[in-house]
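Kindly go through the following sequence and its backbone structure tokens. Advise at your convenience whether the structure tokens fit the sequence:

___
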Amino acid sequence: MRINDLTLHRGRYEAWTDGARVSLTFMEFQLLDYLAKNPGRALSRRQIVDELHSGSQSISDRSVDVLVAGLRKKLGCDGNKIQAVPSVGYKFTAAEWDAGSTEMSRSEPARLVYRRSPAVNSGEEY
């Protein structure tokens, strides 16, 4: 997935911004991926916890805040794409859905490109 200068390689759990690899923990990557797959949608901390929860790890609502803070810091300028929604949680704001159509409307140019991992596919767009 590519959004402006931010690129996510799901199959390799890698994130790149401005051409540089960003070292993320597994949970940080999962959080970024979940937010990016839901652009413009306010996601509650509970929804995020439910998405990130794995059987071996326990995560609380406040852990989400810590993950977001670390993720924003690591992403640098792209960290501002993750915005707090007071009394709710967070949303990813690089691209917003226009409620009147199925097309994306953008306050800034954003191009979403979904790619399969090169290990799975040659990297062609689908």
Summary: The chain has one domain: 2-105. Residues 2 and 101 are 22 Å apart (CA to CA).
